[in-house]
Design brief:
With 354 residues, the protein is α+β, with helices and mostly antiparallel strands. Strands 1, 2, 3, 4, 5, 6, 7, 8 and 18 form a 9-stranded mixed sheet that branches. Strands 9, 10, 11, 12, 13, 14, 15, 16 and 17 form a 9-stranded mixed sheet that branches. The longest helix is centred in the middle third of the chain and has 16 residues. The protein binds 2-OXO-4-methylpentanoic acid. The site of 2-OXO-4-methylpentanoic acid has 6 residues, from loops. 2-OXO-4-methylpentanoic acid binds next to loops.
């Protein structure tokens, strides 16, 4: 195992006292993980240091051209153990994002070993309250000081940790979704399948419009035909049409979500018909009109399963399952969170115990 140097913080921050109201992503722990990359040296100098600001040259390429990727994971407390959910999938996806952004790949064993070390140092920060977990944010920044557009020759990998509750204040209450017809999130051949900050920056305008209209998130359509459904907000999306659960196929602009993949695998295990295919907005709206749209939900690491209660498109509003969470959505939420917190035995390899 690559040695990981640990420099402990001399003063520790107070832990949150109300674990039932942590919000999402605004409290940070005492330490962070750093690994450098330099051309000729590769990834080196893995270290855990006190959490704090990092020094970047103002010409650092990540600041100018967005050469950066990130991941989202969670650590769960189960008695004395720490549990992770399919971390191998996150590290595989990080390397796929690296490939798209011309960032040198990282050794997945180093990613796992260094995260385990960080979690051991920060174990006391993992919340005890039901529904709360330690959100893990690995990310990579291009650090070379240069204004020419090219791949950087140096990078910094970081992991920061944030004790968090629900991503949406609605929790498990259904969210209202605004169908975005003007702006798009990604196009085939672009960076939509990579987890890179530019995709999220591109989503802000539509999200802002939706929020002002009192909708929680945006439903994204494809960038070419403006016809096919892609994702919802920061999540993948599923619709139950009659007895079949349908989710947009991963055909070049949709993020390959790990909760998405797990949802498909659970539905298949339960014998529920599930299809990954092109799905037009019109098909969903028509199913809404004729009573065939029985459930809808988003999936993501941060939100887990987020029921959709209402879709707003132009002048039309479709209410799903009377605006209440549907039984399949509920079962998926209970099962996934049960596996994540170690209360339900999941498929082999999903839950990793530290
Ligand atoms: C996640 O679900 O972990 C994400 O990365 C979405 C987000 C909070 C940007």
């Amino acid at each position: 195992m690559t040695p990981i140097r640990i420099e402990r913080a001399t003063t520790l921050k107070p832990k949150p006292t109300d674990e039932n109201n942590l919000g999402f992503g605004s409290i940070f722990t005492d330490h962070m993980l750093l690994i450098n990359y330099d051309e000729g040296q590769g990834w080196h100098d893995a270290r855990i240091v006190p959490y704090g600001p990092i020094a970047l040259d103002p010409a650092a390429m990540c600041l100018h051209y967005g050469q950066s990727v990130f991941e989202g994971m969670k650590a769960y407390r189960h008695g004395d153990d720490i549990l992770l959910f399919r971390p191998d999938e996150n590290f595989k996806r990080l390397n796929n994002s690296n490939d798209r952004l011309c960032i040198p790949k990282m050794d997945e064993q180093l990613l796992m070993d260094s995260l385990v070390e960080l979690l051991k140092v920060e174990k006391d920060w993992i919340p005890h309250a039901q529904g709360a977990s330690l959100y893990i944010r690995p990310f990579i920044l291009a650090t070379e000081a240069k204004l020419g557009v090219k791949p950087s020759d140096s990078y910094l990998y970081l992991v920061i940790l944030s004790p968090s509750g629900n991503y949406y204040p609605e929790g498990l209450n259904p969210v209202k979704i605004y169908v975005e017809t003007e702006y798009v999130r990604a196009v085939k051949g672009g960076t939509g399948t990579a987890k890179t900050p530019g995709n999220y920056a591109a989503s802000l305008k539509a999200q802002d419009i939706a929020h002002k209209l009192n909708y929680t998130q945006v439903l994204w359509l494809d960038g070419v035909h403006r016809k096919y459904i892609e994702e919802v907000g920061t999540m993948n999306v599923f619709f139950m049409l009659g007895d079949t659960v349908v989710t947009p196929v991963l055909d070049g602009s949709v993020l390959p979500g790990i909760t998405r993949k797990s949802t498909i695998e659970l539905l298949q295990e339960w014998g529920i018909k599930v299809e990954e295919r092109k799905l037009s907005l019109e098909e969903v709206m028509e199913a809404g009109r004729n009573g065939q749209l029985v459930e809808a939900f988003g999936t993501g690491t941060a939100a887990v399963i987020s029921p959709i209660g209402e879709l707003h498109c132009g002048k039309e509003e479709v209410v799903i399952n009377g605006g209440k969470i549907g039984p399949i959505t509920h079962k998926l939420y209970d099962t996934l969170t049960g596996i994540q917190w170690g209360n339900i035995e999941g498929p082999k390899g999903w839950s990793v115990r530290i």
